[in-house]
Design brief:
Blueprint (H helix, E strand, L loop, with lengths): L1 E3 L4 E4 L13 E2 L7 E3 L2 H34 L7 H19 L5 H22 L5 H23 L3 H24 L8 H20 L1 H12 L2
Parallel strand pairs: 2-4
Antiparallel strand pairs: 1-2, 1-3
Helix pairs in contact: 1-2, 2-3, 3-4, 3-5, 4-5, 4-6, 5-6, 5-7
C-alpha cells in the first residue's frame, strides 16, 4: 500500500506515482478506508495520453525548427516560416480548446473564428498584396454564416446554440460594415456588401425563429 501526501488517499498499486496528481507516492504499512484502486485500463489510458502529448509536442517543435532553418537558408527573401508556426500553434488550440474540451459551443466557435482571422491577417502581412479585406474575410464570414445556419437546422440542440451563433454573426457583420464605412479598401466591395446583407438577414431569421431561446439565454446570463 502507498499513500499520496497531496491527495490524502491510499493507493493500492505497485507504481511510484499517484494516478490522480502524478506526484511520488510514499510507502505505508497500514490500510485506510479511502483506498484508491487503480484499474489497469485507466493506467494504460493515462500512459497513452501522456505519450501522445509528448510525441505531438516533439513533432511540433522539430517541424517549427525545420521550417525556420529552411526559410533562412533556402528562401530568406520570403518570411513564410512564421505562418507555418502560427498554423501549428492554431492546431494545438484547436485540439486542446475545441475538440477535447467541455466549453460551450459559443466559446469554441468564437475562438476558432478569431484565430482563423488572425492567421489570415498574419499571412497577408507577409504577402505583397492586399487580399484579406476585399476577398478573403467576407468569403470566410459567409462560409461561417452558412456553417452555423446548417448546424442550427440539423442539430437537435439548436435552442442552446442560437444565442451564441447570433452574437458571432453580428460581430462578423460589424467588421464588414466598418470596412465599408471607413473605406478600408477601394477594390471589390461586393463581397463585403453581400456579407453584410446576408448576415443581417440571417440574424433576423435567428431572432424571428429563435426568439424564445434568445430571451431565455439573456434572462439566464444577465438576470433580465
Amino acid at each position: 500500500m502507498k499513500k499520496c501526501r497531496y491527495c490524502k488517499i491510499d493507493v493500492d498499486t505497485d507504481k511510484n506515482f499517484c494516478p490522480i496528481c502524478f506526484n511520488r507516492l510514499d510507502n505505508v504499512d497500514e490500510t485506510s478506508a479511502s483506498i484508491y484502486t487503480l484499474r489497469k485500463r485507466n493506467e494504460s489510458r493515462i500512459k497513452n495520453s501522456s505519450f501522445l502529448l509528448k510525441l505531438f509536442l516533439f513533432i511540433t517543435v522539430v517541424s517549427m525548427l525545420a521550417c525556420v532553418i529552411v526559410n533562412v537558408i533556402v528562401t530568406p527573401q520570403v518570411s513564410w516560416a512564421p505562418v507555418v508556426i502560427f498554423g501549428e500553434l492554431y492546431i494545438w488550440v484547436l485540439v486542446k480548446h475545441t475538440i477535447f474540451s467541455h466549453r460551450s459551443v459559443f466559446k469554441k466557435v468564437f475562438l476558432q473564428v478569431l484565430l482563423i482571422i488572425l492567421v489570415l491577417v498574419f499571412a497577408e502581412r507577409l504577402s505583397i498584396s492586399d487580399w484579406l479585406i476585399p476577398y478573403v474575410y467576407p468569403s470566410f464570414a459567409l462560409a461561417v454564416v452558412a456553417a452555423l445556419t446548417t448546424v442550427l437546422l440539423v442539430s437537435p440542440k439548436r435552442s442552446e446554440f442560437v444565442f451564441g451563433f447570433t452574437i458571432i454573426v453580428i460581430l462578423m457583420t460589424i467588421v464588414s460594415s466598418v470596412f465599408l464605412i471607413f473605406k478600408f479598401t477601394e477594390r471589390y466591395k461586393l463581397l463585403n456588401f453581400l456579407n453584410v446583407a446576408i448576415s443581417l438577414a440571417t440574424v433576423f431569421g435567428y431572432v424571428l425563429f429563435g426568439f424564445d431561446s434568445i430571451k431565455y439565454e439573456l434572462s439566464k446570463k444577465w438576470h433580465l
